[in-house]
Write a structure and sequence with these properties.
Bound molecules: 6-O-phosphono-alpha-D-glucopyranose
Helix content: 25-40%
Number of helices: 19
Strand order of the largest sheet: 3-2-4-1-10-9-11-15
Shape: globular
Strand content: 15-25%
Radius of gyration: 25 Å
Largest sheet: 8 strands, antiparallel
Low-confidence stretches: none
Mean pLDDT: 93
């Protein structure tokens, strides 16, 4: 939430900061602002609304200078007005701050600062940071920042510049993400890696309470005590082109189409079919450690939580281990019973979701081992984890998660087979079959994408509906939830995912001739359980049909029964039951996308949302 970007170097900072903000805009788009220092003068431009408004403002009233910072906001404290847009100033307008997160004790700090004579002009929590730095400033910005963070409570990342200590940006984080880059006499600070990729792939990830002083001659790193620390830069393999739209109209569409390749990257080198082996050597657990886990608890938020629900069924079926799943945002507050020998898994695309990271800290502090399934190298979750399984999806920019989700599912599939092999629950033949089907999956995903037009036609027929239901059973149920979430977040249509068998306990009352009901009815012909589940779903299809609901079904190729009962039908190639969710979700992503396009919604920046939720 909120994107921050800073530049110091020989070039005009304005276009560089604006480009940085553009690539961070998915983190928040309520308002935007920029502050530039030119020859000891500090100038600010801010406005409400999207970055485009700021671009127009700068065109009307240009600024230039030697260094500066910018911000794109997702409002937490204070309405998304121009006054509340970052950057925020001290009383004299000599120091400015751009901030991501929440200063929890800002009311007490603000009161104290007002008593001391500071004048506030905004409703934000951020403004206290600017005034605190002002209070502690005696010519050196990093010293003032050091004294400031000693007074702050909450989760935050901020960057500060001063017209009176020029040619440097001071950056600090506590919980919220912040990365630093330094190359050939230029320094950069950003909320996220993709904004940095046009300049460098050598990235410094700040630790909590570390202070980075970014200048033309490099980066100095200080501990909160002021002691110097050695900066350790990490190499990122993401290509800058991966973070661009590449001819697609929206990032989301590009990312939907990237899924077959992303999935191939996820599995690359992670299994050998001839030996029926899963290679998870990059995950720092020994076989003995894996075997010592007697149960698993998975914590996640949003779409990653849906992956966790599907993962539970995979692990329970393949490895026969008990698996609990909870929202990371709920787990800490329900006094959980934590059994010994539990492996905790956190699933988080960004590795920075505040609730997930906080839950991870809690279980780690209680002495449990944590595996992080994440997409972002160096993210907070990776640094708190005992072991990491990277999804290798490449940068995901669209706020609605797509390729991160399918690669999370495939990681869980590999993990479930790995655990099933280690504890002797899966035979060599079963493993070989499960892996053969995995190998064929990217082609089946491509086949679905080749028929995307059919989904577009369904969207055309149904985009005016005001409610949708998504129904499924078993491992398909989390995909019903995900389908409903995609539609809600992109098109603002009310949608619910429901277990198909629960319809008769209430939701049947909603059915009428205006309600589209999407059924996930594909099955694995080789599995009796899967077939049985399908037959039950077919009964539910008939029940809805007899009450005049509009039936949209995803089913196996050539399923005459299902087709006959459906108003709209999309076919899916059969595969292993636990891989079907990966295929099923693609038409649902496309459905949400095309419905939202037809309704004129903002695909990559849905209202009130942000990609990375760094507040609790
Ligand atoms: C936000 C995003 C979702 C994402 C969720 C969890 O709500 O919009 O797409 O699923 O955060 O994010 P994480 O990075 O922890 O997977």
């Amino acid at each position: 939430m909120c994107g921050i970007f800073a530049y110091v170097g020989p070039r005009d900072p304005v276009p560089i900061i604006m480009a940085g903000l553009k690539s961070l805009e998915y983190r928040g788009y309520d308002s935007a602002g920029i502050a530039i220092v030119q020859d000891k003068n500090l100038q600010i431009r801010r406005c409400s609304g999207k970055l485009k408004n700021l671009e127009d403002m700068i065109e009307r009233a240009p600024i230039t200078g030697q260094f500066g910072l910018g911000h794109t906001r997702w409002a937490t404290h204070g309405r998304p007005t121009e006054e509340n847009a970052h950057p925020h100033r001290d009383c004299k307008g000599r120091i400015v701050v751009a901030h991501n997160g929440i200063v929890e004790n800002y009311i007490a700090l603000k009161k104290k600062l007002i008593d001391e004579g500071h004048q506030f002009t905004t409703e934000t929590d951020t403004e206290v940071i600017a005034h605190l730095i002002e209070k502690h400033f005696a010519g050196n910005l990093e010293t003032a920042v050091m004294k400031t963070i000693a007074e702050l409570k909450g989760l935050y990342a901020f960057i500060a510049i001063s017209a009176d200590d020029p040619q440097k940006v001071v950056a600090v984080r506590e919980g919220a993400p912040l990365v630093v880059g330094s190359v050939d006499g230029e320094g950069f600070v950003a909320s996220d890696i993709p904004a940095m990729l046009p300049y460098t792939r050598s990235i410094l990830f700040l630790d909590d309470h570390e202070i980075a002083v970014v200048a033309r001659d490099g980066v100095r790193l200080l501990a909160a005590s002021g002691a110097a620390r050695e900066p350790h830069f990490q190499q990122i393999t993401w290509d800058p082109v991966m973070a661009e739209k590449g001819g697609y109209k929206h990032f989301m569409l590009k990312e939907i189409y990237e899924q077959p390749t992303a999935l191939s990257n996820t599995v690359l080198g992670r299994f050998s079919l001839d030996a029926n082996v899963i290679h998870l050597e990059d995950v720092a657990f020994t076989d003995e450690q894996w075997k010592s886990f007697k149960r698993i608890c998975i914590l996640a938020c949003g779409t990653s939580w849906h992956a966790a629900l599907a993962g539970r069924q995979m692990i329970q079926s393949f490895a026969r281990l008990p698996v609990e799943v909870d929202y990371a945002s709920e787990y800490r507050y329900r006094n959980p019973v934590m059994e010994p020998d539990t492996l905790f898994i956190v699933i988080t695309q960004s590795g920075e979701t505040a609730d997930t990271v906080a839950a991870q800290k809690m279980v780690r502090d209680r002495g449990f081992k944590v595996l992080s399934i994440t997409n972002v190298v160096g993210s907070m979750s990776t640094r708190l984890a005992d072991a990491v399984l990277y999804t290798r999806a490449g940068p995901e920019i669209g706020v609605a998660s797509t390729k991160a989700f399918t690669t999370q599912l495939v990681c869980l599939y590999l993990l479930a087979i790995h655990l099933g092999k280690l504890n002797g629950r899966l035979s060599g033949e079963e493993i070989r079959r499960a892996l053969t089907e995995l190998m064929e999956l990217p082609h089946k995903m491509e086949a679905i994408l080749e028929h995307a037009k059919e989904i577009e036609d369904i969207a055309k027929a149904l985009f005016r509906a005001e409610d949708f239901l998504f129904l499924a059973r078993g491992v398909h149920f989390p995909i019903a939830l995900e389908g409903a979430l995609k539609l809600k977040e992109l098109s603002y249509i009310h949608a619910e995912g429901y277990p198909a068998g629960e319809m008769k306990h209430g939701p049947n009352a909603l059915i009428d001739e205006n309600l589209p009901v999407v059924f996930l009815a594909a099955y694995d012909p080789a599995s009796a359980d899967s077939r049985q589940c399908y037959e039950k779903v077919l009964n539910n299809v008939r029940e809805v049909k007899s009450r005049d609901g509009i039936i949209v079904s995803l089913g196996n190729e050539g399923d005459a029964d299902l087709m006959e009962n459906s108003d709209h039908y999309f076919s899916i190639a059969p595969t292993n039951e636990f891989l079907l969710p990966i295929l099923e979700v693609i038409p649902l992503q496309l459905l949400a996308y095309h419905v939202a396009v037809r309704r004129g919604c903002d695909i990559d920046q849905p209202r009130n949302l942000a990609k990375s939720v760094t507040v609790e």
